[in-house]
Amino acid sequence: MTAYKGFEDWLDALLSKPLPSGIAAFNFNLYENSEEQEAGFAIQLIGAERFNDKDPDWACDEVYSSEEDLFFFSSDDWENALDMCAAWIERYLESGKLADTLKACSAVACGFVDGDLLIVRKQ
Q1: Which residues in 71-83 are b (16+ Cβ under 10 Å) and which e?
Q2: What is the pTM of this model?
Q3: For the segment 52-109, what is each residue's pLDDT rounded down to a tens digit?
Q4: Mean pLDDT (whole number) for 29-49
Q5: Which of 9, 36, 37, 45 is deepest in the core (most CB within 10 A)?
Q6: Cα distance between residue 40 and residue 64, in whole Å
């Protein structure tokens, strides 16, 4: 299974479950795992109640989180991990089974929880 296929299956499973109303934007939180874990990085999906591209803390106002249901993957370094995540989101937005759920909100972003967010799509 390719890494993208794993991401796609994970995201399909999350988006096929009922989501709370009031999600204005989605963010894919990236985490760098400890060295004891097999995969170097993990992704968590959150839904925020607001989006403001002038306020970088908009993703802190969560109304939904995949919690511990994370997607784990390997990458050479954090920059490549961020680029991979953004590319997977773009690909999912183009052809993912439940892409309309993401497209219905104001924005879709990704980024490390302690860093800047990369806006992948904005209405």
Answers
A1: bbbebeeeeebbe
A2: 0.93
A3: 989 989 999 999 999 999 999 999 899 999 999 999 999 999 999 999 999 999 999 9
A4: 85
A5: 45
A6: 24
Amino acid at 76: D
Domain locations in the chain? 3-16+23-122
Which residue is associated with the tokens 């802190």?
A: 60
Alpha carbons 73 and 21: distance in angstroms, whole number = 30
Burial of residue 88 (number of CB atoms within 10 Å: 0-12, 13-18, 19+): buried
What is the per-residue pLDDT for 20?
95
Q: Distance (Å, rounded) from C-alpha 95 to C-alpha 78? A: 26
